[in-house]
Design goal:
Length: 160
């Protein structure tokens, strides 16, 4: 088998949870999550040869997953569906915590715009401001300001 193919499959196996987390934040239906998972994997495969640091691919995977998700949302906003599609088998997803606070956090995050969702997801994953800035495409100081404002906004939603 091709060594690049094997290396890609190992990275995908080890880090597929990142794609599931991004899907959880951006998409509500299982079908949308499955479609986006496939598209993200395709985009990762296309850009894998250009990945510089194959030992630490998490930032790259987050970047591709977030950008692919945002592109899908924007593309889907322009589509109209005529009829329901049949139910397809699902990609196996990791178990999701059903805790009430966790569900409340997901609901609050779902009300944010795409960039703010990305910033908070990466912040919750303990990425540095510099790493978040690289992935999202804004300055580290702007990341700090946005995180402060978003934390205040989310805290108000939790205290209602």
């Amino acid at each position: 088998m091709n060594p690049v193919h094997d290396e890609f499959l190992k990275v995908l196996t080890d880090y597929q949870g990142i794609i599931h987390k991004v899907n959880l934040i951006y998409f509500k239906t299982d079908m949308d999550k499955q479609d986006n998972f496939q598209e993200v994997v395709f985009q990762l495969w296309r850009s894998f040869p250009s990945l510089k640091n194959k030992n630490k691919p998490a930032s790259w995977i987050y970047s591709v997953a977030i950008n692919t998700s945002i592109s899908k949302i924007r593309k889907d906003c322009n589509l109209t569906f005529q009829e329901a599609l049949p139910d397809f088998s699902m990609v196996e997803q990791p178990e999701i915590n059903e805790d009430a606070n966790y569900q409340q956090l997901l609901a609050a995050l779902s009300r944010l715009n795409e960039i703010d969702k990305s910033i908070m997801l990466l912040y919750l994953e303990e990425f540095s401001y510099e790493q978040i800035a690289d992935i999202v495409g804004i300055s580290p100081s702007h990341v700090g300001v946005k995180i402060h404002r978003l934390k205040t906004q989310l805290q108000k939603q939790f205290n209602r």
